[in-house]
Amino acid sequence: MTSPAQGPPGRVPDFFIVGHPKCGTTALYEMLRRHPQIYMPERKEPRFFSTDLPSPFQPRPSGAPGETREDYLALFAAATPEQLVGEASTAYIWSHTAPALIAQAQPGARIIVILREPADFVRSLHLQLLQHRSEEVASLRRAIELEDERRQGRELPSVNANWPQVLMYSERARYVDQLRRFHAVFPAEQVLVLVYDDFRNDNEGTVRTVERFLGVDDTLPIEVLEANPTVRRRVGLDETVRNLAYGRGPVVRRLRRAVKLVTPARLRSEALQLIRGRMIYGRPKSPDEAFMLELRRRFKPEVEALSEYLGRDLVSLWGYGDAAPVDVKPLRRSPASP
After folding, report:
1. Is there a domain that residue 219 lies in?
2. Residue range 189-212: average pLDDT?
3. Spatial CB neighbours of 327, under 8 Å, sequence gap ≥ 6
4. 99 band by pLDDT with thresholds 50, 70 and 90
5. Which single residue of 23, 122, 250, 271 could bond 114 by disulfide (Cβ 3.0 to 4.6 Å)?
6. Does 293 fall in a domain?
7. pTM over the 0.90 mark
8. Which of 53, 65, 45, 128 is nearest to 98 (CA)?
9. Number of separate domains in the chain
10. Helix, strand or coil for residue 191?
């Protein structure tokens, strides 16, 4: 199989938004792609270089081949020579293969990372995976307790049967290890590390920082956006609506047939999206504060290490000063990058 860094010629992106998810990466992507000097394709999350994680470029479960390098490069074919080309794949930050493969394909690439307070990040990620049906365990506490079992290939939802890494919440917060993988193959001036709090408090100022980092005009108007908000999936309602829309059985078939007779296809689709948006997905429940404190205590050594690594007091910013570490099993360190 041809390496992602090799193959037929084509335009490889000049910059990459590599993550984390649930940290404003979608909003940043949407704002940057409106800049006339930047081209980013409509397709977010191609994940081409994360060969160790689920990706449309990996072979399918059926054994059929995935998409090709040519398919990936075609995403950027519409860019003009004067435009910078970028893409956004949040899997790259926790992939062990992506940093080196990106560096091989584009040594001058600029890398953009956004980091969020770990306990809040993990909670938001868990809710997103529930929404996408990549997770079936509704309790974050229980999902984290299952990490060792899942690492052994047990207690996994079918969609992630071959990819337990997706559900290793504790390892997703290994920020220093993740940054080191990129700093090992890119000089420091090519890696921009942002903090989610700064982005939330000053969208425009953060985007200006990114524009200057990329070397594009930082004086043009910016449309401030919020994208991909955290929501909670109401499992029972979701199953009911899915059964009505896609389920089998004589009763469901007769009901769908009656609806089709009186409702155009476009209106049926819009109605389904409206129901899912208003009934199935709602504001998340308030977090379990006791468990969130437990998580902050568990993640405090990581936050201290990140503060030292970046030269910024994130312990105070994220409220970890009073979160004394507790005697828990340490989070597993990621193995060294190959």
Report:
1. no
2. 96
3. none
4. very high
5. 23
6. no
7. no
8. 53
9. 2
10. strand
